[in-house]
Amino acid sequence: MSRSRWILAMVAALVAGTACSDNPTSGSARAGTLTLRLTTPHADDGAMTFQVSGPPIDSATVANASIRLFTRRESGSTVIGAVVGALDNGAVATLHVPDVGAAARYTTTVLEVADRQDALRASLAGYALTVAP
Amino acid sequence: MRISILVLLAVVGATPGLAQTPIVDESEPNDNVRTADSVALGDQARGVVNPAGDVDTWFVDLPAGQFLSVDVDAAQVGSPLDATLELIAPDGTTSLAFNDDFDGFDSRISYRVPQSGRYYVAIRAFGATGGPGLTYVINFDKVTCPVVGTEQEPNDTPGTAAPVAIGDSGSGEICPHDDNPAGDVDYWAITARAGTTIELDVDAAALGLFVDPVIALYASDGTTQLAFNDDEDGADSRLQYSIVTTGTYYATVADAAGSGNPFPYTLHVRSITPGPGDPITVRAQGLGRPWGLAVGNTGDLFVSDLTGNRVVRVSGQGVVTTFATGIPTPQGLAFDAFGNLLVASTDGAVYRVTPQGQVTRFITAGIPLWIAVAPDGRIWLTDLSDRSLRRYSSTGQFEARFDAISVGGSGPGPLAIAPSGEPHFSQGTEIWKLANGELRRVLRGAFIIWAFAFDVAGNIYAPAPAAGRIQLFDATGAIVADTFAIGPDAPQAVAFGRDATGATVARLFATDPRVGRVFEVNPAGVAHPGQPVGYVAPRFPLDVAAASLLGGGGLSAADLQYLDALGNHNGRYDVGDLQAYLRTVGGLPGARSNR
Description:
Chain A is mainly beta.
């Protein structure tokens, strides 16, 4: 085999190998879970709606049994959800994502919060949600 | 005929030594106190009421404290006279007592005079008639107990009770305290069959006397009191009782006032025609004064008991347990949208009792009397302090007030929600509804209507405690059954039952504070299941409710309004409302359904 033909064969092999791979996490991407954490200034939160946007999210589950979670996919990159239960500082949901390395690219918004007597918070100051491994 | 024989025997027995009785004939003119004829105690006055409008007046001098008996014999001895009798004070004008008919058409007055003096007795013919044949005699004597009317003293015990048959009447006299310092009690024996509802009706004040009789009914053992009444009919008394076991029962007549003044009375014993809701079945007894009634989602009955300021739970097996205590004068009951029991207290608040029996003050109001929860979870109550109908959110926030003074009566009182969702309330003898913000009369009854209930067809089951019956009206207010059930003695509140799934059924329960019972009417007489009471869970599933909150739609405007009303009622459906809905359907983590 001539040197040029060997190079072509290698290139073809590389091209074929790339074409046969349909795993988007191949390379540096790694599927896994991220945690959605709440920071709240109150100790009697009972319910909250929120929005998470950014990289894809496969699904979401509650972080613990004291919370009930409802979600709806707004678009391919946005999920809105509601958590009801005894909310406190800390984890409220677990996000199942295709690339845990993209955690920093998620943006979150607290939409509404109600206390445990069903009254809406007039102000959302002091509330924050973070997405992190 | 039986009465006549007894009366004749009584008269004969009452007049021993009649042959020695001095007879005083009238001397006309004697039409007024100035021309009255004189008699003394022990005399028998004799005269004729003639011509029409004639008045014969007699006087007798009496010492203070004397018990006077003035007893007319006319119709009983064949005279066509229907006499009336009046006792007049020494001032010659003050009427102390009046009687028309005691022994049949004959009159009788017994009276203890408060002071020494000359007292006057006037005899007339009823209707101001008169004629040469209207003869009479009047026996002036001291009151004694031995024999009056058809009773036979001593009859102060069940063993000495005078018999009286259903459909008959008995007459007697409550003796003066001098003759019976313990207070005279007359016993009457009545034989009744199971399934019969009897009515005992005492006439004493109705005879024109300023007296206050009470009546009671005792079981065959002579000691267990089954029913009692004072003042059902003015100062007179009346009660009804449904007989569950064939046997002899005992009625007693006594003096409530304890004035010491003797008085005659007539006891009527009747059988009441049953209605479609008869016979009734006792589901719980031995309660103090059971008042309001609500049915839990598993079919248990919850009853406010004025005795003990408590709420009791009555299981399907009739087991009574105390559910909550410390609620002053508990009145109406209703379950809220979250499964808590709300209790209106005329103490000035609505109390909330959790399923575990924990009591907290929930709504502060003036004098809340009755309470109901609408299908949307909103709370309605009647407030006697300003005579208003009030609406609150399901969480107890005040929303609206409707003035009910304009409807008259003494209400607003008991309250219920119709199948239309419109609140209805009693103002006494009438039921009104709030429709499109306006109060409209639905029906006008003959009796005071207490806590009524609707069936699914909108028919109204209305307890009338004073009449001792439950009446049935249709949704337009027309009477369907004037006597739906006569079994209860004084039904106060009615409510339809539920089965184990929470569905309302065609079983109607009622409280009866007079006898301390909760009973059920005959289910065969109930045409329709009851209107579901209180909050009614909507048909959309939880996932749809959640998806709609998150922008997915799927709920109607009415659904959204419902959810908002269930929650914080801030004008839109939000996450607080979802939380309220979750709580209601038992969807909160660690919770179970309250419905």
